[in-house]
Known about the structure:
Layout: H1 3-24, H2 28-37, H3 44-60, H4 65-88, H5 96-114
Helix pairs in contact: 1-3, 1-5, 3-4, 4-5
Subcellular location: Membrane
Membrane topology: Multi-pass membrane protein
InterPro entries: DoxX
Amino acid sequence: xxxxxxxxxxxxxxxxxxxxxxxxxxxxxxxxxxxxxxxxxxxxxxxxxxxxxxxxxxxxxxxxxxxxxxxxxxxxxxxxxxxxxxxxxxxxxxxxxxxxxxxxxxxxxxxxxxx
Length: 115
């Protein structure tokens, strides 16, 4: 695996992991928009868990690439769903935020899959 793939994957996993922790601790900049979009509070721990497992899977993919690809695909689905949720809530000014996570996940997954 190339150095670029490792660096991008580690940084992406840290970024997604930060997002998971933000949900778990109830960071205002995360939970207020979730409430605004109509995401039930009971779903928030599941969303954080999905992101945390995805981040761990990306890191595990450095050792077992198919696992990283699977985690990446899961995160692509997750963040695509986040974009759809924001669009359905008509909160267009928030669309860039899930894209800030989706883009590096796509790149990391592509680099892992190319290895």
